[in-house]
Predict the structure.
Amino acid sequence: MGHSIEVSEERGVRYLHFGTEWVQGAMRLSRPHQLVLAYTQEMLSFLLFRPAPLKVLMIGLGAGSLPKFFRKELPNTAITVVEVNPAVIPIARDLFRVPDDDDRLDVQVGDGYAWVHESGATFDAIFVDGYDHRARPGKFETPAFYEACVARLAPQGVLVSNVFGQVRGHAQTMRHLREAFPRGMLRLPSAESKNVVVSAFVDPPATTTVAQLRSRAARLRERLGLPFHKWVHTLQQHNPPEQQALFR
């Protein structure tokens, strides 16, 4: 794929790199199923609105943090992963403890952009974290890709995308997402990086009050050990009034 794959370790955390300093994934050696990177945790904020996805597509395997977390914590969810670089998969399995395929995990080699255009499958959630070795999203931030994702989402489905929020072109990416998902989109800036997690809904979630959302966040926090309560506050701060109508 034109770049090396490297693994480093520091303070009990193993990191995956694609030939640059950019981190493509991480695993805490003592807790291999824990989500180490803040933005990977924040990608689960969609569960506040879509709590029980049965079929999930993930574009980009990396170190496999999200597939491992889903397998452990969401036992009713089946996960399909599409990874463009076949060399990543054995490294993820040998060094980052990604399990072998079974009836709940299917890791495929393929171009995620082409895959969503050609597949006839539908999913309750699609996760997009497909940056290259220089942290460039390429075709994954284009109208054609987002429109193809809409076609692959089931009713009530949601696209969860990791977007760099402080780079040139961010406003254009947000515009493309709004055009493809006019019925609802929420931004969640990451607490520890320049990333922004976007949850874009095929159909708007049922309107809920902030109090109800906080109650849901408390239950999810207890169950999954992640700061859903903080994400409710951040969603209120960083979304315009027309989107906050989802949780008044």
About this structure: Residues 210-224 form the longest helix (15 residues).
